[in-house]
Amino acid sequence: MAVELPAQITVFERGWLSSNNILLTGGQETVLVDTGYCTHADQTLALVQDALAGQTLDRIVNTHLHSDHCGGNAQLQEAYPGVRISIAQSQLDNVQFWQEEALTYRATGQQCPRFVAHDALSPGDVIEMGDLAWSVVAGAGHDPHEFLLFEPEHRILISADALWQHGYGVVFPELEGEDGFADVATTLDRIEALAPRIVIPGHGAVFLDVEEALARARRRLAQQREDPRSHAWHALKVLLKFKLLEQRRVERASLLEWASAMPYARALGMMHFADEPLSALMERALGSLLKSGAARQQEEWIEDGG
Question: Helices in 169-306 by DSSP H: which ranges?
C-alpha cells in the first residue's frame, strides 16, 4: 500500500546497493537527503533532474557517510556547482581532510568519490526542508555519526539505517570491537518517544506500522546481544553481498581473495571465528549466499542472485 506524503516530499526508493533518496521542494531551498552508491550516481542524477524539471538543487543532507548514502555526492556536486552539502558535525574534519580510514571505506572495501562538505548538523538543530521544519535527532548504533530527521507536524521520520520495516543496518561499531548494541537500543527508544506516524527508511518502502517495526527491531537486537557471533556472521554475508551488488559478476577466486583481505573480515575472523582460517570462513559465507539464492555460480564466476 502506497503511503501518502506531503506533496513537497518525493522518495526515490532504490535497491539495496543504493540508499533511498528523499527530495524536498517548495521551500527556500531544494534539498536531497542521501545520494546512493557511486556506481548508481548516473541514475541518481537522472532521477533528480527529472523531478526538478529545470530547478536547481541547493542542498544535499547526508544522514551518515556510509558509501551507499553519500556515493552520489561528487557527481551531483559536479552537475550542480552551487549545491551545498550538510553532514554530521562529528564527521566534518574527516571529510575536509578525506580520512578514508575514519570514513570506513577502506575497511569495507567500498568506494566513495571525494566530495566537499560545507555545513555541519548536530542533534538538536532544526533545518528547513520542503517548507517544513525538521529536527536533527541522534541515531547512533548502525553508525556512531548517524542522525535522523523528524518533522513533527506530520510526524514523519527519516530513519536512515536506524530503523527499517524489518530491522536495521549492520551495527558497524560491533565490527570494530566496540559496544554498538547499547546505542541501537537507545535509538530505538528515542524513535518510540518521537511517536512517528510515517517512517521513510534508508532502504525499503515507506511504512506506517511503526510499533510493529520497533518490536521486530528489538527482537533482532535481543538475539544479537545474546549471540554476537550471529551478528558477525550476518555482517560478513552483508559485506560479501554488497560487493556482488556492486560488481554484478566476479570470478570466484577474485571475490574470495578480496573478501579475505578486507579489514572488517580480518577483524571479525579474529574476534569471533579464531578457530577457523579466514579463507575457509569466507568460503563458508559465500556458500551460505549461494545456498540461499542471494548469489549464483556459473562455472568460475559468481553472480548476484537478485
Answer: 172-175, 181-194, 210-226, 228-247, 252-261, 263-272, 278-292
